[in-house]
């Protein structure tokens, strides 16, 4: 991701979590240095890679945030909702100036890994079917898993409305014929429920446990969240591959 160029006062607002009118006197009084020089020009263009000090203390600015949330049941996967609590409501007090949204949806009654970010390009890439970033779910069903379901998922299910889905992974969990593991690379509305529905099975529980090569942190607990580290972010590239400096995945 290229470093963002922005005005010094905007940078300071973001880095210090204060308003532009609070930033103004800091700059005017010469309390801000950029790469060692006092700077009194609030509209100077800076990038977050420069060394920007206030009263001699370093500042830092994160261009975007990436959060892993363990969504509880009953919470809506949206940025805002007139009636229900949303996934963004669970974290927004910690990020008052960020426009966070969920990258991909989980149904209200589903639980598990929701990624919240303010990085639109990243979210787009994460969800694009052609990028093949997988999403893995533990799914409880109301009839025992059959080989016909497994073969059907792998071949690509055609939904009741005629939608032809990409091949998906379906595995049993040893010792429990009602518990399955599903891997998808696309996100159609109610997809897993509708896929099992084609085989006459109902979904009784649905939990997303991984996105790409990144597992949901099992220590978070329902409603718990934390930022995703830069190393973990790399696991969210297509097939968990690393990216070389020329931008080509390898
Ligand atoms: N498929 C569903 O049916 N529901 C979800 O929440 C996710 C995938």
Task: Explain what this protein looks like in three dimensions.
- This protein is of the alpha+beta class.
- The chain folds into three domains: 6-58, RNA-binding S4 domain (Structural Genomics Hypothetical 15.5 Kd Protein In mrcA-pckA Intergenic Region, Chain A, Roll); 66-130 and 220-236, 2-Layer Sandwich (Alpha-Beta Plaits); 134-211, 2-Layer Sandwich (Alpha-Beta Plaits).
- It is built from six helices and 15 strands.
- Strands 7, 8, 9, 10, 11, 12, 13, 14 and 15 form a nine-stranded mixed β-sheet that branches. A four-stranded antiparallel β-sheet has the order 3-2-5-6, with no helix packed on it. A two-stranded antiparallel ribbon has the order 1-4.
- The longest helix is centred in the N-terminal third of the chain and has 9 residues, at 8-16.
- The chain is elongated and about 70 Å long.
- It starts with 5 loop residues before the first strand and ends in a 16-residue tail after the last helix.
- The model is unreliable at 240-250 (pLDDT under 50).
- The structure holds uracil.
- Uracil binds at residues 106-107, 110, 190-193, 206.
């Amino acid at each position: 991701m290229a470093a963002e160029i922005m005005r010094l006062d905007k940078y300071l607002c973001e880095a210090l979590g204060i308003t532009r009118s609070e930033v103004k006197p800091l700059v005017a009084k010469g309390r801000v240095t950029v790469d060692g020089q006092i700077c009194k020009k609030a509209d100077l263009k800076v990038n977050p890679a420069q060394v920007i000090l206030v009263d001699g203390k370093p500042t830092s600015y994160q261009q975007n945030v990436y959060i892993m949330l363990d969504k509880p049941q009953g919470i809506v996967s949206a940025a805002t909702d007139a009636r229900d609590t949303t996934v963004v409501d669970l974290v927004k007090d910690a990020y008052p100036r960020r426009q966070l949204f969920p990258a991909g949806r989980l149904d209200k009654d589903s639980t598990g890994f929701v990624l919240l970010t303010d990085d639109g390009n990243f979210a787009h890439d994460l969800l694009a079917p052609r990028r093949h970033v997988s999403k893995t779910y533990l799914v409880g069903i109301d009839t025992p898993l059959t080989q016909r379901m497994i073969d059907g998922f792998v071949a690509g299910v055609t939904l009741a409305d005629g939608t032809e889905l990409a091949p998906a992974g379906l595995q049993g969990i040893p010792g429990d014929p009602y518990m399955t593991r599903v891997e998808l690379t696309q996100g159609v509305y109610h997809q897993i429920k509708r896929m099992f529905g084609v085989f006459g099975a109902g979904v009784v529980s649905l939990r997303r446990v991984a996105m790409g090569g990144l597992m949901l942190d099992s220590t978070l607990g329902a409603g718990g969240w934390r930022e995703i580290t830069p190393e973990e972010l790399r696991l969210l590239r297509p097939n968990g591959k690393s990216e070389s400096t020329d931008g080509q995945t390898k």
